[in-house]
Amino acid sequence: MSEIERYLDSKLGEDVDRRGFLKLSASAAGLAALAACGGGTVTPGPSGPTGAEFKLGIVLPYSNVYAELGSSITNGIQLYLNKVGNQAGNRKITVFKEDEKVSTDDAVAATKKLVEQTSVDMIAGYVLSPNAVANRDYLTSNKVPTIIANAGANVISRAKKSDFIYRTSFSNWQPTHPMGSYVQDKLGLKNVLLVYANYPAGAETAQSFRETYTGKFAAADVAPPLGYTGDWAVWVSKITAANPDGIYVFLSGTDSVGFLNKANELGALKNIKVTGSGFFVEQDVLGSVGDRAPVGAVSGLHWALTLDTKENKDFVAAYRKAYNKPPDVFAMDGYDTGRVLVDALNAVKGDTKDPTKFLAAIGAVSFKSPRGDFKFDAATHNVINPVYIRELVKDPQLGYTNKVVATVAGVADPGK
Ligand code: PHB
After folding, report:
1. Which of 53, 286, 300, 303 falls 20 to 30 Å from 412 in CA-CA distance?
2. Whose CA is nearest to atom 6 of ligand 1?
3. How far apart are the two ends of the chain, measured CA to CA in Å?
4. Distance from CA of residue 392 to its chain's centroid?
5. How far is ligand 1, taken at its centre, from the CA of residue 162, in Å?
6. pLDDT at 46
7. How far is the CA of 192 from the centre of ligand 1 (A)?
8. d(CA 253, CA 249)
9. Rounded to the nearest whole angstrom, what is the distance from the C-alpha of residue 356 to the centroid of ligand 1?
10. 277 CA distance to ligand 1 middle (Å)
11. Which whole number is the average pLDDT over 357-383?
C-alpha cells in the first residue's frame, strides 16, 4: 500500500461529514500531486476549519422567571450550530454562556464579562426587554455585533435602533397588533380586561392592543409584578371581580404557569374568552400546566408547533430528537439566530475584522424559517414576521398545543 493509500484508508475509516470529505479529497489530491513530483514524506493538513476561532457570547436567563426561555433559546442556537458542525466561514464557533438573570445590573455585568474578559466576537441573547435596552449603548459604543433573540422592547427598532444590533425575534408591538382588532371584530368581545406582568414588555403589549381594540375595558389593568412568587389568587380574584367578557394576557415563563394553575383551580376562566400574545400558552407553559391549559384560548404569535411546512417539520423533528421534548417559540428563535450567524459568517468568508461588513451580511440574511419567510427590515433591524392567530386545542397526537386559525403575513414594526 502506498503512503497515500494508507492515509486515505485511515481517514475513510473515520466518520467524516461531507465538508470534511471535500477537504479530505482536496488534501488527498495535494498528496498525490506531491507524490507525483517525488515529494517524500508529507504530513496531512488539518481537516477542520483553519481560521481563527469565532467566539459567540450568549447572555440568557438560566434562573428565575424566564429560566426555561433561556434554556430553549440556547438549545435552539446549539441545534443549528451542531447541524453545520459548529463552523462557518472556515472558523470554528465556540459558545460562551453567561446568566442574564433578571435585573439590568446582572445583564450588563454578564455582557461586560463576555466582551472584556472573554473577548467574544459577537453577543446573542437577551430575553428581558429592559436588559436589551440597558446593554444597547455599551454594545453600540464598543462596536459589538449583536443579535437579540427574544427581548421585544419596541425602542430597539425605533429611537434606539443601533447599527450593531439586529433582532431575530419580534418587537413587543408585533404579535399583539393584529390581535386587538381580531378580538373585537372576529371574537366579538366588547368588555376586555388586560392582564400583564408589570414591566415594559407587559406595558408595551397592552399599548399595542389598545391601538387596534377600540371597545370598553372592564376595569383597570391587572398587572402583577414580573416573577411573581406570591399567591396568584390575589390577581385572579381581580379578574372575577371585574366580570369581563374576555381577557388579553401577556405573561410568560413561570408567571404564566402560576397564573394558569390558580385560575384553573378557582374556575376563574370558565365563562371568559381567554386571549393574549402567544407566550402565555406556548409549549414551555403547556408542558408545565398539563390539564390546566385554557383550551380554546386564542393567541397571536410568529410561530406554532403545528405549522405544516417542511422547514417547521424538519426543525421540530430535529429538536425532539436532540432534546426529547417539543420545541417552543423561544427554541425556534434561537435556531434562527444560529442560522443568521452562520449564513452571515459564510457570506463574509469568516472575515469579521470590519464589523460594518459583517453587520451588513447579517442584515442581508433571508431564508425559509420554521416560522415562514425570514428577512430583516432595513429600517428597523427587526425581523418582519408572519403573525399566526392560534387556538389552544388538545391534539390526539401532540397533546395541548396551538393550531393556526388565521395568518397575518409580513407584520413589520412601524419604526422608521
Ligand atoms: C420581554 O421582556 O421582552 C419578553 C419576555 C418574555 C417573553 C416575551 C417578551 O415571552
Report:
1. 286
2. 252
3. 67
4. 21
5. 20
6. 59
7. 22
8. 13
9. 28
10. 10
11. 98
Classify residue 36 as exposed, middle or buried by CB count within 10 Å of its CB (0-12, 13-18, 19+): exposed
Q: Determine which residue's CA is closest to atom 2 belonging to ligand 1.
A: 128
For 309, which DSSP code?
Answer: S
pLDDT digits (tens, 9 = 90+) for 260-312: 999 999 999 999 999 999 999 999 999 999 999 999 999 999 999 999 999 99
54-60 vs 122-125, strand pairing mode: parallel
Give the Cα separation of 108 and 173 in Å (integer). 24
* Residue type (1 letter), 4: I
DSSP string, 197-241: -SSHHHHHHHHHHHHH--SEESSS-B-PPTT--S-THHHHHHHHH
Q: How confident is the model at residue 47 (pLDDT cuts 50, 70, 90)?
A: confident
- Going from the C-alpha of 71 to that of each of 126, 150, 346, the distances in angstroms are 12, 12, 26
Point out which residues pair with 222 in neighbouring strands: 195
pLDDT of residue 2: 42
Q: Tell me: the pLDDT tens digits for 189-222?
A: 999 999 999 999 999 999 999 999 999 999 999 9
Element (H, E) at 97: strand 91-99
Ligand 1 closest atom vs CA 200: 2
Buried b / exposed e along 258-268 (16+ C-beta atoms within 10 A): bbbbbbbeeeb
Looking at per-residue pLDDT, the higher value among 28 and 373 belongs to: 373
Tell me, in angstroms, the distance from the centre of ligand 1 to residue 17's CA.
38
CA-128 nearest atom, ligand 1: 2
3-state helix, strand, coil in the chain (%, to 5): 45, 20, 35
Q: What is the pLDDT of residues 12-31, one digit of tens each?
A: 333 333 333 333 333 433 33
The C-alpha cell of 223 is what? 398587572
Atom of ligand 1 nearest to the CA of 199: 2
Residue type, 285: V
**Span from the CA of 96 to the centroid of ligand 1 (angstroms):** 22
Q: Which of 169, 174, 205, 252 to mutate to test the pocket of ligand 1 (most atoms within 8 A of CB)?
A: 252
In the block, which residue shows the cell 404564566?
Answer: 256
Contact predicate 168/148, CB 8 Å = yes
**Ligand 1 — pocket residues by CB below 6 A?**
66, 127-129, 150-152, 172, 201, 252, 279
Mean pLDDT of all residues belonging to the chain: 91
Query: pTM for this one?
Result: 0.90
